[in-house]
Amino acid sequence: MPDFMLLFRGGEAESKSPEEMQKIVEKYIAWVRELRTQGKYKAGDELQPNGRIVSSVRGTIVDGPFVETKEAVGGYFLIEAADYNEAVVIARASPNIANGGSVEIRQISDYS
User: Fold this and answer.
1) What does each of the 112 residues of the chain score in pLDDT, given as a tens digit?
2) Long-range contacts of the stretch 101-106 (C-beta < 8 A, 24+)
3) Burial class (CB in 10 A: 0-12, 13-18, 19+), 43
């Protein structure tokens, strides 16, 4: 079965109270628990808001991406799914969608 990378973007976490954030975290824990039970979960984590970008233009290194933009990746999950259709079903069930964010789905190339 192929692997898929789910890239989480956006959401409204910054406008949530600590109590609301705790509820969101609990939803992620339950979602991951279900994926593990199904044998679909491989890895995943939240990403720190700061980072660096290395560019091919003169090898420059700049701060970024900036989490204030809707395009910043806030987290990732590596899952196993039969095909893109199943990966979409899994992504739609993620708490990030319910929280106003989006999930980019990319199939991992298998060169073995």
Assistant:
1) 999 999 999 877 667 788 988 999 999 999 999 999 999 999 999 888 888 777 777 666 666 555 455 578 889 999 999 999 999 999 999 999 988 899 999 999 988 8
2) 101/8, 101/9, 101/10, 101/11, 101/12, 101/74, 102/8, 102/9, 102/10, 103/6, 103/7, 103/8, 103/9, 104/6, 104/7, 104/9, 105/4, 105/5, 105/6, 105/7, 106/4, 106/5, 106/7
3) exposed
Q: Scanning the structure block, which residue is given the tokens 């079965």?
A: 1
- What's the CA dihedral at 53, 55, 61, 62 to 10 degrees? -50
